[in-house]
Amino acid sequence: MSATQGPRLAQFKLVLLGESAVGKSSIVHRFVKDSFDDFRESTIGAAFLTQTLKINDNTSVKFEIWDTAGQERYKSLAPMYYRNANAAVVVYDITQSASLERAKVWIKELQRQPNYQDVTIALVGNKLDLEEERQVSEEDAKLLAEQEGLLFFEVSAKSGDGVLNIFQEIAKKLPVEEQLNKIHQKSASKVNLQRPSTNNQTTCCA
Amino acid sequence: MDEEYDVIVLGTGLTECVLSGLLSVEGKKVLHIDRQEYYGGESASLNLQQLYEKFKPGRTPDESLGRSRDWCVDLIPKFLMANGELTNILTHTNVTRYVEFKQIEGSFVYRWDKINKIPANESEAIYSSLIGLFEKRRLRNFLQFVANYREDEVSTHKGFNLDVDTVDDVFNKYGLEEGSKNFIGHAMALYDNDDYLTQPARETIERVMLYAQSVARFGKSPYLYPLYGLGELPQGFSRLSAIYGGTFMLGTPIKEVLYEEDGSFKGVKIEIDGEEHIAKSKQVIADPTYFPDLVKGTSKLIRTISLINNDQLPFRHNENSGQIIITGKETKRTNDIYMALIGAEHKACPPGKSIAICSTIIEGDKPPHIQLETAFGLIKVKSFDHTFMGLSDLFEPLDDGSKNGIFISKSYDATSHFESVTEDIKDIYFRVTGKPLKLTKLEEGEFNATA
Ligand SMILES: Nc1nc2c(ncn2[C@@H]2O[C@H](COP(=O)(O)OP(=O)(O)OP(=O)(O)O)[C@@H](O)[C@H]2O)c(=O)[nH]1
Ligand SMILES: [Mg+2]
């Protein structure tokens, strides 16, 4: 209600999961840079991106996006990957039915996480532009999502169809107000190591 | 099926993970294996369940301790120096994105039957109750000398040659009393015994500088600690390594180490999904447990972990975390006892609880828990129901790996911070790559895929 409310920014951690080559990184790149690469290599280097989405006149949601980096290949994903995730996007490839099976395993894995109740999960079928090669029917995947209580989308990172919508719908589900209130209460702050040291923090009596 | 790597890394302790990350960033092809299902080895943080399995098998945690997963209990008590080398590596590699840090609230030394805040600079020293009035002037002069010391300005050297003059020489010139010497050496330079006094002064001066600069960086204490425990650090660096192409396999025992005819390293035999594979490399980096025949024990450490209630915290000003050094002098021992206290503020345990980790080098044949008596007294631990005790041998490699390509890390020692760990990291890096570690800041852009 305060009269002088400036722009507000709530930050959330979003993780991507899914079999190799289903298009996780492509979805992120479409969302963050609105670009697509037909020859994207398996993720190297780009595994941490951010993108801000305006949800109303003075409020924005900043996604801190964690893309898997190959640690999942031999079941070696570090627990820190899931820690404090607010949202998870589980991706499969609509032209590969095996990739949906793998997605189910990831959903189970997510359900084992301590903060599972607080995580917004979306099941996403990618490569919608390859309709003629489809192996997974929309109905089957949708049913799975309903049973597990997940958001569901079919998209194409290549054409861009539906990608932005995933993140907009997720943003609607995130506890934005709660998060913004928390920021105000925070007292003992975390230290920012990237900021060069300044001595404005009083050590003591000097 | 068989594949060739530039470097194979065995074990996911902090040393191994930092090296794995640094080498991957350089474009080396790294295969990283751990026989255990979780990251971190000795530098992992355990939940209650895991803690009991390790130290009190067959017993289930008390209900009063709350949920298992709310605990992240370290096995080794170490903090990061705010201006130390590990902090430096973290910021240069941007691993700070994955790990959040908070300050440790205080740094104390036990003296005259109570704990005293360690003065961190000349102005704090003036107010400290630790030091007598006349001594304050002398201590202040000494700390000023350290603060102004510049390697390339002879006028700041005050006539000392730090490579020749001993610590004692310098202390005596400033007329410092035993008490001040003791806390400069132990609480600021963080030596755990008195051997340093007869050594050339340079290292001690540098350590005091590091301490003072670390305090100056964020205030309160020189120490930082990651939220959710130290176990986050190896995980953060493993992610760095993976992002740059490193391959990770956990829960993968080494079935056999393969050697060339001349005895040098050739590779390892592993099993993936019931199928045997051979991974080849000319170089291997490993923690001591992977090559027990190629290491020697140096000393024995006792470490205890006590899960306590916050009313057992020994602080006087409601600090929620801290380090306490009980110097050898206070307990008539040679080696200091270190106590690290952390709690819910660092997300290491549920609210209302704290974790106290004590460690020291074992001396003589008194039972280990007697050696730590003073420490237990401070945190009012009378029964050992919620205390876990472990003896660890500290190992170091028999040779430097230059002949056989086997580079073994040292065990995590008794010191209270990571400076010796980063020294080992840099040393191994040098031996593996043939060049000294030069940290260059990874730019934002380098994190973006080549589009
Ligand atoms: N036709 C089509 N191809 C796509 C689409 N999205 C991704 N691809 C292609 O699929 C391949 C894999 O895409 P990535 O985004 O690298 O997949 P990933 O899931 O990140 O793979 P990993 O990093 O190995 O786990 C690339 O060749 C992309 O060009 C899409 O919507 N349609
Ligand atoms: Mg990818």
From TrEMBL, chain A:
<keyword id="KW-0813">Transport</keyword>
<dbReference type="GO" id="GO:0005886">
    <property type="term" value="C:plasma membrane"/>
</dbReference>
<dbReference type="GO" id="GO:0005768">
    <property type="term" value="C:endosome"/>
</dbReference>
<dbReference type="Pfam" id="PF00071">
    <property type="entry name" value="Ras"/>
</dbReference>
<dbReference type="GO" id="GO:0003924">
    <property type="term" value="F:GTPase activity"/>
</dbReference>
<feature type="region of interest" description="Disordered">
    <location>
        <begin position="187"/>
        <end position="206"/>
    </location>
</feature>
<keyword id="KW-0342">GTP-binding</keyword>
<dbReference type="InterPro" id="IPR001806">
    <property type="entry name" value="Small_GTPase"/>
</dbReference>
<keyword id="KW-1003">Cell membrane</keyword>
<dbReference type="GO" id="GO:0016192">
    <property type="term" value="P:vesicle-mediated transport"/>
</dbReference>
<dbReference type="GO" id="GO:0015031">
    <property type="term" value="P:protein transport"/>
</dbReference>
<keyword id="KW-0636">Prenylation</keyword>
<keyword id="KW-0653">Protein transport</keyword>
<dbReference type="GO" id="GO:0016050">
    <property type="term" value="P:vesicle organization"/>
</dbReference>
<dbReference type="InterPro" id="IPR005225">
    <property type="entry name" value="Small_GTP-bd"/>
</dbReference>
<protein>
    <submittedName>
        <fullName>Uncharacterized protein</fullName>
    </submittedName>
</protein>
<keyword id="KW-0547">Nucleotide-binding</keyword>
<comment type="similarity">
    <text>Belongs to the small GTPase superfamily. Rab family.</text>
</comment>
<dbReference type="InterPro" id="IPR027417">
    <property type="entry name" value="P-loop_NTPase"/>
</dbReference>
<keyword id="KW-0449">Lipoprotein</keyword>
<keyword id="KW-0472">Membrane</keyword>
<dbReference type="GO" id="GO:0005525">
    <property type="term" value="F:GTP binding"/>
</dbReference>
From TrEMBL, chain B:
<dbReference type="GO" id="GO:0015031">
    <property type="term" value="P:protein transport"/>
</dbReference>
<dbReference type="InterPro" id="IPR018203">
    <property type="entry name" value="GDP_dissociation_inhibitor"/>
</dbReference>
<dbReference type="GO" id="GO:0016192">
    <property type="term" value="P:vesicle-mediated transport"/>
</dbReference>
<protein>
    <recommendedName>
        <fullName>Rab GDP dissociation inhibitor</fullName>
    </recommendedName>
</protein>
<comment type="similarity">
    <text>Belongs to the Rab GDI family.</text>
</comment>
<dbReference type="GO" id="GO:0007264">
    <property type="term" value="P:small GTPase-mediated signal transduction"/>
</dbReference>
<dbReference type="Pfam" id="PF00996">
    <property type="entry name" value="GDI"/>
</dbReference>
<dbReference type="InterPro" id="IPR036188">
    <property type="entry name" value="FAD/NAD-bd_sf"/>
</dbReference>
<dbReference type="GO" id="GO:0005093">
    <property type="term" value="F:Rab GDP-dissociation inhibitor activity"/>
</dbReference>
<dbReference type="InterPro" id="IPR000806">
    <property type="entry name" value="RabGDI"/>
</dbReference>
<dbReference type="GO" id="GO:0005737">
    <property type="term" value="C:cytoplasm"/>
</dbReference>
